[in-house]
Amino acid sequence: MSCCNGNNSNKVSDKTLYQQKPAKEPNIDGKVKLTNYTTKEILHGIIGITKSRLHINRSSDEIIKKRTEICLPCKFNNKNKKNELGFCNHCGCILKDKINNKDENCPLGFW
């Protein structure tokens, strides 16, 4: 299952997900630059991390598993060569926190 080959057949549906448009072009050099983000985006990230760590709005285990299967091989996962979740080089989020929060979605539309 790969997120970056144009195949969205494994997309997870969740009525609580909201759609957000990507704010910037993907960064595939493996570096997340905080200066590229607006205050609103940074606050969104802080709130998302806090909710994830406190298990607020936690996704079901099935959704977490499917999201993980999609993100692990993705070229925007900066640790994809180690079979781990790192940062998303497209949106800058910590993937393990983004995956766990049912209010989040992939800005590229893969889940």
Features:
single chain; 29% helix
Brief sketch in words of this structure:
The chain has 111 residues and is mainly α. It has three helices and no strands.
Strand percent estimate: under 5%
The overall average pLDDT, rounded, is 76
Inertia-based shape: globular
Major beta sheet summary: none
Give the H and E element order. Answer: HHH
Structural category: mainly alpha
Helix content: 25-40%
- CA-atom Rg in angstroms: 13 Å
Explain how this protein is built.
The chain is an all-alpha fold and 111 residues long. The protein has a domain at 34-100. The chain has three helices and no strands. It has helices at residues 39-53, 61-71, 95-100. The longest helix has 15 residues, at 39-53. The protein is globular and about 30 Å long.
Outline the fold blueprint.
Elements: H1 39-53, H2 61-71, H3 95-100
